[in-house]
Amino acid sequence: MLKLVPRKEIDVLKWDDLIASSPAETIYPYCWYLDTVSENWSALVVDDYRFVMPVVWKKKVGMKYIYQPFYTQQLGVFGREYVDPELIQKMLRILYKKFRFGGINFNVKNLVGEDLPFIVDDKSNYVMTLDQDYDIHYKGFTSNAKRNIKKSIELSEQVERNLPVEELVRLKRENDVLQRSEEDYRWMVKVFETIQQHDAGKIYAIRTGSEITAAAFFAFSKTRAIYLLSASSQTGKEQRGMFRIIDTFINDYAGSGKILDFEGSNIPSVARFFGGFGAQADIYQSVSFNRLPATLTKLR
Predict the structure, then answer these.
(1) Mean pLDDT, the chain, whole residue set
(2) pLDDT grade, residue 295 (50/70/90)?
(3) Does residue 299 have a pLDDT over 60?
(4) SS3 letters across the chain
(5) I need a surface site. Which of 58, 122, 127, 238 has the fewest CB within 10 A?
């Protein structure tokens, strides 16, 4: 049996136990994380939590639509066993009838057929499994990555591991390439502090004198460590600070078996940066649909 279940009726223990046992396990679909990053969410549930699909939604001018929350790269269908593409199509058809438009990033274990009226795009995520000693991982770094790590060590001071969230967000705000509101940054602080309250977040930072020049937030789940947010000042960029931060993280967790998930990217320069540490591309699929009349499409 497949049904759409509101958040208040979801059995949190059964849900989180399934996510923890899924081959696609990651921090994004746990109940507490979805509660943190979204205003509303429901779920498609098969039988007694055999398969689940979180559905994050909002309402605009009386119409419900599905969206992918910030800091939540992949959702889709989770289960302990193989997810049949026919089940995914069945779920999408239900959502198509219930919502006016939407966009969903499925996880790397899902295969979505390219059937109309759904538009399917392939996206790249870079990952590496930290299952070797650091020296072995380091041998797999590109010469460019090694050169920049060396330069960063020469130019910057120590790497800290306990930077307060507000300092990280302040660095992001002062050097952000996107235009965001103060409310956006307050929300950012709330999200990252909540992750830390669940003992699932750690901030690595480089301090030069009294100045934080580069920092990154890593979010942990049972199997993964996600490079969830990074920020650098101009000095940090010149010092190649992010190379040193990632190198330090890999050194700290080498041999742990954790999957270091870089959460992107389709941008070639960013992909090269991640690939410089030995990360490999994982393909996931993004699905969108639109039932709005042409005159209302601009509301999206």
Answers:
(1) 95
(2) low
(3) no
(4) CEEEEEHHHCCHHHHHHHHHHCCCCCCCCCHHHHHHHCCEEEEEEECCCCEEEEEEEEEECCEEEECCCCCCCCECCEECCCCCHHHHHHHHHHHHHHCCEEEEEECCCCCCCCCCCCEEEEEEEEEEECCCCHHHHHHCCCHHHHHHHHHHHHHCCCEECCCCHHHHHHHHHHCCCCCCCHHHHHHHHHHHHHHHHCCCEEEEEEEECCEEEEEEEEEECCCEEEEEEEEECHHHHHCCHHHHHHHHHHHHHCCCCCEEECCCCCCHHHHHHHHCCCCEEEEEEEEEEECCCHHHHHHC
(5) 122
